[in-house]
Amino acid sequence: MQKQSYAILEEGQSELLRNELLILLQKFMENPTNIEIFDQDADNGDHCHSYWEMRLIRRYEKERFEKFILVAPTCKHAPVASQVYDKSFMLQLRSGYLQGVFYNHNVVDLRDNDPKFDILSRVFQLLVTLKKNKMPDSFLCYYVKAVVMHLIDIFSEKWGVPPPRKGHTFEQAWAYLMENLRRTEFSVSDIAQYLGISPYYVSKLFVKNTGTSAQRYLIFVRLQTACELLIDGYTAVGDVANLSGWSNHSYFSSSFKKIVGITPMEFYRSPLEKQKKLKEKLDNVVIGFNKHKP
Known about the structure:
Elements: E1 7-8, H1 11-28, E2 35-38, E3 52-60, E4 64-71, E5 87-94, E6 97-103, E7 106-112, H2 118-132, H3 137-159, H4 170-180, H5 188-195, H6 199-210, H7 214-231, H8 237-243, H9 249-260, H10 264-269, H11 272-291
Parallel strand pairs: 1-7, 2-4
Antiparallel strand pairs: 3-4, 3-5, 5-6, 6-7
């Protein structure tokens, strides 16, 4: 099999491609319904790599054809023959580190450890989890749109191009929350300020799309992060609280005990099997929020 090669362009040419790529991402936001997620080996797969691979492909025929493809690390799959499409965007991400952005066989951006890319790994893993829970594409498209919206914001800032702002969407609010949940000073008011709307309207967006308020959603995803840190071996409750976005350590401990069922230190001292069961129970609550249909 012939390995694909990508051309590195001069800055002037790269700027034109970047603008065209942003247009493609914006267009994809209009109809992200064709979704493929690979998290286990495909029957006909002989291609494998250690990073997340995300692709958007577009083809112009009788009807517009657009597809979102996500491949998990180490998953065997058939390589995408992007040359058969009119437009092809590919992003490679390794543990929050951007490995490369490619557009129509050209290198658009390379090697970036901006922390804003870290959210993508988390959302990619969430998409895999939702797919395993047999969520329909009509539901997954909410989170695909959030990924694309986040990319538009990142690339617009990096490349000095103003991002599009068409109304105030749940995807924008959700992506901003997921990006900033580990900041101890972050609150629902920051989402409101970012979108230029009131905190009340932010909560309305979350209640409509998740069945719960933005503040309660933030508490649960922060507790998910705290559980992950404790499972990874973090022992200091204060450090776990800070790293998962809690400025008030007492409130963190009481919320953890109330929702998870035991204290953070009891969780840490529990056998791994019990930790995973408690974490899975918490994950299922968040999945329940995500399954809510407006």
